[in-house]
């Protein structure tokens, strides 16, 4: 057997993936989700776990959990922790590791708020309207505020897996999952640990969040045909579709993985991160920061651009994002870009979890040499000039590296370069 390099082109420890987990609207584990994605199925449907009467958007890529009851779903904090545990349990089982994990826990997640039913209960039980009365009322109603602490799911999960140090809960909007991978990768490259857990979970599909995004005119409102609502890179794209889900990766240095006889599933080749500070919700329309973050990830990998044979696009199905991302891809790769699909067409936009879920999807695509499609492409926008892998998954050969793009509100941009068999 040939010698395997333990360090990369810059002399840093190589960071490999030894375990993966995924929960999406298409399945509660990696195998089910991947089967749905490669079959080109939509997981978008009407929301049933809470009343959507009167809402502009009444559908999403839902993951309903055993603890949900009609009209009384689990609180957001508990949902995030549950989804995260499902994905990380699966990833650790595949990696052959058990708690305690002697490394950091890096987790992309939404900031958790006490939801409106709980706020109403606290207010009704208070003896006055001032802050002290509210605090005393909350203290008497621990069940109403449980799981409502800002980053409580990260603490719960870090304790579950016995990770080392303070959990790194990150909220860089829709780039959070990618940021978590970046933080874990950098810790391993610096020699701070030999193993790390990285991922993200999302459970923001609540009445309040749907109303907020609707007020921004960010969501599709195709209530008559939810399965066709997420249509990235199409002429008729009219907004994104919210999704629940979680993605998890066990990361190790190559040296650590080989020493314990682990199966190496893939590699984090490089990571790029840039903030464009253009607007609170919009990306810079010149696409320069988005192109730059892709170039940074490629440069960090030490590989030429032509090695990257697949891009999992951020591809939200909003008019502006898809145009900007297409511009950026051509700025990096020229007129003929690699095949580029948006799996959000099937599992919705999982926000804080998207970067982690889509990194796992990239590794699965490279492993199986099967690129997942972009569905709902009866009117692909020709001006974008992208091969979006329409309708059906595509078998390929010799594709060993991919890019996963994640762009968050406020210009928080992350790109992860991944490889298999390099």
Automatic annotation (TrEMBL):
Gene Ontology CC entries for this record: cytosol
Q: Which SMART domains match?
A: PKS_KS
Domain (Ketosynthase family 3 (KS3)): give its ranges.
12-420
Q: Which family does the entry's similarity section mention?
A: Belongs to the thiolase-like superfamily. Beta-ketoacyl-ACP synthases family.
Q: Which domain of life is it from?
A: Bacteria
- Pfam annotation, one family: ketoacyl-synt
| Matches recorded under SUPFAM superfamilies | Thiolase-like
- A GO term, aspect molecular function: 3-oxoacyl-[acyl-carrier-protein] synthase activity
Q: In which pathway does it act?
A: Lipid metabolism; fatty acid biosynthesis
Instruction: Provide the protein name.
Output: Beta-ketoacyl-ACP synthase
User: Which source organism?
Assistant: Rhodovarius crocodyli
């Amino acid at each position: 057997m040939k010698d395997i390099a333990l360090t990369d082109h810059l002399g840093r420890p190589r960071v490999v993936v030894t375990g993966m987990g995924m929960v999406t609207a298409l399945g509660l584990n990696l195998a089910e989700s991947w089967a749905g994605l490669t079959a080109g199925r939509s997981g978008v449907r009407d929301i049933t776990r809470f009343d959507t009467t009167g809402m502009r958007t009444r559908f999403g890529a839902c993951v309903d959990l055993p603890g949900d009851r009609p009209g009384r779903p689990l609180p957001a904090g508990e949902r995030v922790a549950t989804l995260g545990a499902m994905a990380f349990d699966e990833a650790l089982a595949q990696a052959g590791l058990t708690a305690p994990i002697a490394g950091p826990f890096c987790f992309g997640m939404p900031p958790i708020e006490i939801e409106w039913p709980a706020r109403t209960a606290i207010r009704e039980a208070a003896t006055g309207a001032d802050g002290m009365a509210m605090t005393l009322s909350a203290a008497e109603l621990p069940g109403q505020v449980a799981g409502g602490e800002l980053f409580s799911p990260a603490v719960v999960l870090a304790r579950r897996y016995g990770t080392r140090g303070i959990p790194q809960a990150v909220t860089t909007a829709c780039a959070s999952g990618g940021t978590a991978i970046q933080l874990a990768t950098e810790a391993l490259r610096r020699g701070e640990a030999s193993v790390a857990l990285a991922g993200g979970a999302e459970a923001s599909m609540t009445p309040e969040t749907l109303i907020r995004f609707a007020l921004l005119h960010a969501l599709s409102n195709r209530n008559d045909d939810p399965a066709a609502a997420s249509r990235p890179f199409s002429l008729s794209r009219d907004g994104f579709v919210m999704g629940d889900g979680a993605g998890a990766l066990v990361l190790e240095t190559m040296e650590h993985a080989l020493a314990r006889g682990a199966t190496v599933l893939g590699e984090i080749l490089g990571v790029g991160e840039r903030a464009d500070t253009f607007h609170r919700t919009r990306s810079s329309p010149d696409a320069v920061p988005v192109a730059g973050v892709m170039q940074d990830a490629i440069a960090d990998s030490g590989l030429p651009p032509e090695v990257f044979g697949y891009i999992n696009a951020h591809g939200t199905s909003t008019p502006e994002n898809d145009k900007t991302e297409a511009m950026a891809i051509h700025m990096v790769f020229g007129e003929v870009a690699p095949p580029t699909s948006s799996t959000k067409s099937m599992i919705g936009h999982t926000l804080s979890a998207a970067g982690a879920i889509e990194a796992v999807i990239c590794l699965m695509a490279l492993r199986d040499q099967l690129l997942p499609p972009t569905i709902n492409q009866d009117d692909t926008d020709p001006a974008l000039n992208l091969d979006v892998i329409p309708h059906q998954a595509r078998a390929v050969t010799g594709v060993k590296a991919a890019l996963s793009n994640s762009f968050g509100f406020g210009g928080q941009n992350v790109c992860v370069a991944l490889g298999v068999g390099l």
